[in-house]
Specification:
39% of the residues lie in helices and 15% in strands. By secondary structure, it is α/β, with parallel strands linked by helices. Strands 1, 2, 3, 4, 5, 6, 7 and 8 form an eight-stranded mixed β-sheet that branches. The chain is globular.
């Protein structure tokens, strides 16, 4: 069993708490409550983020013809995980999940229940080392064919803008033309004061440090790629299924881009 410290809140478990999951400990729940007090709309943000993940995977598999997914910063399994949404659209989809938190590794079995026509794999690796991710993922994915790189609510754990862009570029450089990247990112310019207070609270006690970006900063992560419509927008408004979904007061930017 992987070794982890339950007395320090970890984002994978705090996020699980925000999503009403059961895989969290007292320290995670305490920080979860304090951050919700600082920004009550946070609950809408995390739900809107999960819904963005499901809609983008569905778009990529059902409309863009993508059959391979590299999901980095997977999180603890919950409803509508990438392989479930993708393989519902096309059972032959192949998915590689990546996370650096041992608790996600502990739950990886739930992420590996692939349909027989496809494949799922899990890598215990760090986004800061894209070459290790690419090398490990190559056992399951064929990088000579298009891949969708999913960076959902994970880029805000990279504080340095240049490093963040370099990592996206390195991942996309390894992917064939016609590949996609989907990014969602906590916003610094929506409900700015409450978000700043929530992040201060999170960074004071959490194991991971979070850096929020504004819309322009998130858009820069897609440089050199072709943004698909409607570009970088509030995640809830990215091709929403209903007006109600679009109206969610979520402080999260999202976008999908194609490698020409
Ligand atoms: C907020 S959760 C998002 C989970 C999922 N992508 C979603 O949006 O529902 C962030 C996840 O990213 C992982 N993570 C944070 N920094 C990471 C890094 N440097 N490398 C790999 N995973 C990381 C955390 O462990 C956590 O599981």
């Amino acid at each position: 069993m992987p070794d982890f410290d339950t007395s320090v809140p970890h984002i994978a478990r705090v996020y699980d708490y925000w999503l009403s999951g059961k895989d969290n400990f007292a320290a995670d729940r305490d920080l979860g409550e304090r951050t919700l007090a600082a920004y009550p709309n946070l609950v809408f943000s995390v739900r809107a983020n999960r819904a963005f993940l499901a809609r983008t995977v569905r778009f990529l598999a059902a409309e863009a013809g993508i059959r391979q997914f590299l999901d980095i910063g997977t999180g603890i399994p919950t409803a509508s995980n990438t392989h479930q949404v993708a393989q519902r659209a096309a059972p032959q989809c192949r998915i590689v999940y990546v996370d650096n938190d041992p608790i996600v590794l502990l739950h990886a079995r739930a992420l590996l229940k692939s349909k027989p026509e496809g494949a799922c794999a899990y890598l215990d690796a760090d986004l800061r080392d894209p070459d290790a991710i690419l090398a490990g993922a190559a056992d399951t994915l064929d990088f000579s064919k298009p891949v969708a790189v999913m960076l959902i609510a994970v880029m805000h754990f990279l504080g340095d803008d240049a490093e963040a862009s370099k990592i996206v570029n390195r991942l996309m450089e390894a992917c064939a033309p016609g590949s996609f990247v989907a990014i969602s990112h906590a916003a610094s310019d929506i409900d700015a004061e409450q978000m700043a207070e929530m992040i201060r609270c999170l960074n004071q006690s959490g194991a991971e440090h979070m850096t929020i970006r504004d819309r322009a900063g998130v858009t820069r992560l897609f440089d050199a790629l072709e943004l698909v419509e409607p570009g970088v927008i509030r995640a809830a408004e990215w091709r929403p299924d209903s007006g109600l979904e679009a109206a969610s007061p979520a402080a999260c930017w999202g976008g999908v881009a194609r490698k020409p």
